[in-house]
Amino acid sequence: MDRDPGTARGRRGPLLGGFLVLTAVLAVVSIVAMVRSLATMTYLNIHFAAEVDPFSRAVSYYAFYGDGREAFATSAFVLAAGTLTTLVGLRSAGLHLGVPAGVLFAVWCTSLALCAIFPTDNGRTITSVSGVIHQVAGASLFVSLPLAGLSLAKRLATDARWARVGHAVRRMAVAAMGLAAAYLATRLPDVFPDLLLPGILDGRGISGLVQRALFGLEMLMLMALAIHLLRTTLHKARDRHTAPQAEATG
What are the tens digits of pLDDT across the range 116-162? Predict the structure, then answer.
């Protein structure tokens, strides 16, 4: 028995409309979460500038001053939540992340949570279990997101609607990998205390600045995905609304 095409479209309409609303809501929640996380981190950088030198000390050390621990944890958790809603929104929009990107994004979110839960040690050497967990998670999150971006960018490049943002994500991911390598280089004297480096190669004086630049670039990469997700969803909703009117007047 043949199905009426009009009836099929009618049945698909509410379902498609529901997915569009869900995707738009997820995109908005993601953007709000990332702005909230960025605002909190900006507050920490300004409020505790005297206690934590933004040029030479990592953002982790805000946890040892005032309300820094709660604010830092909030920023990390909110950013992880914003990442998850972005990924769910991409899937709702019909994009397949692929296993490599999915695993790497999971590592990023898990590492953010671990950094929020387990503070580092307030000193040059790491002696506690909490400090070790924090350091390993911190290294993981700064590497995992650029790799996830590179993996995702390959899939985005095959979709005309996402190709442009895919290229932007790829460029930011490559730049982030470079900053991650630079940050590791600035931390070598701390990781290997016996390593003798000429003063000109000792980058500890700018390690905090490099870390903040890397963190900001990674947030920008996620923000680009969330904003483009909202834009494509709104365009699709507009096209879906105008298509029946065009058919009626045609």
Answer: 999 999 987 788 999 999 999 999 998 999 999 999 999 999 999 99
Q: How open is the CA angle 88-91-97, to the nearest 5 degrees?
A: 105
Task: Give phi and psi for 165, each to the nearest 5.
Answer: -70, -30
Between the CA of residue 81 and those of 85, 111, 150, what are the distances in Å?
6, 12, 21
Burial class (CB in 10 A: 0-12, 13-18, 19+), 155: middle
Task: Please give the structure tokens belonging to residue 144.
Answer: 């995992």
Q: Which helix (H) or strand (E) holds 4?
A: none
Q: φ, ψ for residue 142 (rounded to 5)?
A: -75, -20
What is the C-alpha separation between 181 and 179, in angstroms, rounded? 5
pTM: 0.86
